[in-house]
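This follows on from our talk about sequence and fold. Please put the record directly below this note.
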Amino acid sequence: MNFYSIKDKIISNSIAISFGFIIILMLGQAILSIWRFNEVKTEFERVVDVYNVRMELVQKMRVISRERAPILFTMINTEDAFDLDDLLIQFQHLGSQFLSARNSLLLTGLSETETKILEEHREYARSIVPGQRKVIDLISEGEILSARKLLVDKVSPEQIEALKKLDMLITYESKKSRQAMEKARGLFENTQRDLGLTTIIGSLISILIGIIVSIRFAYYVKTLKKNKEELEKTVTERTKELVDSNKQLEHIANYDSLTQLPNRALFIVLLEQALKQAKRSDYSVALLFIDLDGFKSINDTYGHNYGDELLRQVATSLQATVREADTVFRLGGDEFTLILSNFHALEDVEKIARKIIKILSEPFDIIDQQCQIGSSIGIAFYPEHAKNLDELIKKADTVMYDVKNSGKNNYKIYQP
C-alpha cells in the first residue's frame, strides 16, 4: 500500500465522516425542530382552547346573571297571573343554566386562585337568593311597592357586586392567557437560538433546512400574533359589554321601565339632594304629588296595553309642561311627582300646576281611541311646611288626597 492509497483512504474516510456528521446534524436538527414545533403547537392549542372555554362559560354566567335582573323588574310591573308564571319559569330556567355553566367551568381544572374567586362569587350568589325569593313572594302577595323597594335597595346592588366577581375572573383569565402567550414566545426564542447554533455548525444542507424551519416558525409566529390580537380584541369587546351591562343595570334600578321616567328610588335621592341644596342656598323647594283621575276605570275597561300607552303619553305631556331644570318622576301606578327648585314666587308653582291640570284634561288618542282624564295635585313646600324629606312627602301626598276627596281635577297647597 503506497502513500497515495493511504491518502485517498484518509480523504474518503474524512468525507464519509463529514457526511455522517452532516446527516447526524440534519437528523438532530429535524428532531429538535419537530419537538419544538410540537411543544409550541401544544402550548398554543392549550392556551386557546382552555381560555376560550373558560371565557365562554364565565361570559355565559355573566349574561345569565344580567338577564335575570330585568325579569324581576318586569314581574313587579306585570299584573297578569299567567305572565307572572311565565316570567318565574324563565327566571328559574336561567338559574339552572347558570349552575350548569358554573359546574362546567369547575370541570376545566381551575387553579386555586380561580376556584377562590368562583367560590367568592358563589357566596355572593347565595346571599342574593333569599332576597330574590322574598321579592317573588312579595309580588305573589301583591306587595308590589315592598317588592320594588327590596329589589332596588338590596337585591340589585348585590347582583352588581356578584357581577364584579365574575369580572375579576375574566380579568384573571386574561392575565393567565397573556402569561401563557409569553411562555410560548419564550419557546419560540429558544428554538430560534438552537437552530441558529446548528446552522452555524452545519453545512449548506443544514443552512437550507434552517431556512425552511425559519419559514415554518415565521408562520407560527404570525399565527400566534394574529390569535393574540384576536384575544385582545375579544377582551376589549367583553370589557365594553360589561361596562354597558353595568350602565343598563343602573338604568333599570333608577328608571321606570314603562315611561322611562326616574322611579321612586331616584326620586328619594334627588329630593334629598334638592333639600340639602335649598338649605345651603336658603331657598324653597316645592313638591307636587300628581294622581290621575279616572285612570283606573279606563285601564279596567280597555285593558293594560291601553293603560300603559296612556301612562307613556301622560309622562311625555308632563315632561313637555315643566321647566327644563325640573324633574318628573313616576312613583308607580298612576302616581307622578314633580320637584320644583329656584322658583321666584308662589304664583310660579301655581302656574305650573294649572298648566299640568289643563294639559292632562285634554283628550288623549290611544290606539285609535280617544279618552279623557283629569289630575289631582297636592303641593307642599320646604322649609315652610316641612323640615325634612319624609314630612314633605307625607304632606304633599295628604293634600293630594284632599283634592281627590273634594272634587278632583284641581290643585291644593298644604295648609297647616
